[in-house]
Known about the structure:
Strand content: 15-25%
Largest sheet: 9 strands, mixed
Order of helices and strands: HEEEEHEHHEHEEHHHEHHH
Number of domains: 1
Number of strands: 9
CATH superfamily: 2-enoyl-CoA Hydratase, Chain A, domain 1
Shape: globular
CATH topology: 2-enoyl-CoA Hydratase, Chain A, domain 1
Structural class: alpha/beta
Low-confidence stretches: none
Distance between the termini: 47 Å
CATH class: Alpha Beta
Helix content: 40-55%
Amino acid sequence: MNWQALTQALFGNEHSIERKGDVLSGTAQLQGKTLTVVGTTEHAAIGVETALAQAKAILDTLQQHPGRPILLLVDTQGQRLRHRDELLCINRYMAHMGCCVDLARRSGHRVVALVYDQALSGGFITSGLMADTCHALPEAEIRVMRLPAMSRVTKIAEDVLEALSLSNPVFAPGVENYVAMGGIASLWSGDLQARLVAALADANLRDERAALGATRGGRKLSAEVTQRVLAA
């Protein structure tokens, strides 16, 4: 689903969301309330300018509209792999973006993320995974690291990782596996506006991803280990 069809499904004509480059920003009306909408499109590679543009939209909302809910629309191929961005320390810009989302949450803004197309690597970590809750469309593609890259980092043979990915969601790409691990709270289909209304109305602000992963069988030990560490 492209971003125009998505925003139509979510808000009808009650929005002023615009695209500048690969960045989406604007406001929308939902049941008489105004939301800030920030995101990316066209499988955006998150470079310095993209990270700053999204961060600015969030900071502007904090400053000018305290408490206004924020919807993050996620479609990214991860960070932009260019020498210029690396020299400018793209990791710091992406961390700044993530910190802005976290600041919004801590300042009383309800932040909901929706992966509507593609979510890869650091571009997903510093946006969708920083929200109060992250949801996805069933056709979305999600992965943080491809198996060849994972093999190089972990020094585990790629064929071993491929075998593990057949039974362990931690090693496997795909939106269903991220649901199983608790990273994706739910898949949205049918009436998308109703799903967004329900997500914004959910008053539970606790991070329950580890507990969801244990319940769903995707991350069986994370919640238990966390509790043991907290109790130590």
